[in-house]
Amino acid sequence: MREAYRRWAGVYDEVFGAVSAAGRRRAVAAVNGLPGARVLEVGVGTGLALPRYAPEKRVVGIDLSREMLLQARKRVKRERLRNVVGLVEMDAEAMSFRDASFDIAVAMFTATVVPDARRLLSEMRRVVRPGGELLFVNHFAAEKGVRWWAERTLAPLSRVLGWHPDFSLGDLLEHPDAAAEIAPCPPFGLFTLVRVPNRMAFA
């Protein structure tokens, strides 16, 4: 995945920025509406979402790609985003943060690119305080039809694409009813917002 995103870093905004913009707006709007100031953005990438956070949110972003983080740091400097308090190269499946370090963790288009989405979920749960919130925006595979066929045809190319086209909600949540909200996002419901309260007993 490091290699895939090293290739994408310079053109990511132009290639993916527009199609993912509505999902990012939806996710950050949800974050801004939640209580708590300490926000972790997992898989911050080039920082496309960073300018949208409310000024009172104190945002830390992590990413595995040094090249993507370089672009994010340029954006923070260029747009004078003083509420972005850290951008750190870090593995989302093995974070170095202490337990309960954040009020909210949000992962936008990240669950499909990590090797183990359940491990990602577990780490996000650990670093967010009990009673906080976990949010995901992601593409989840169709269950049938032409899109189902296309996603499974593209699945062997996942190492080149840098994401898994056949990724399902069940790959992230063992019990999808643990989510407090599952809402489609534009365009055409291609992406989905999932909000999961960080309860003590979690499945």
From TrEMBL:
Gene3D superfamilies: Vaccinia Virus protein VP39 (3.40.50.150)
UniProt keywords, alphabetically: Methyltransferase, Transferase
Ranges of residues in domain Methyltransferase type: 40-136
Annotated signal sequence range: none
CDD domains assigned to the protein according to its UniProt record, in alphabetical order: AdoMet_MTases
GO BP term, pick one: methylation
Keyword match Hydrolase: no
UniProt GO MF annotations: methyltransferase activity
Record-given protein name: Class I SAM-dependent methyltransferase
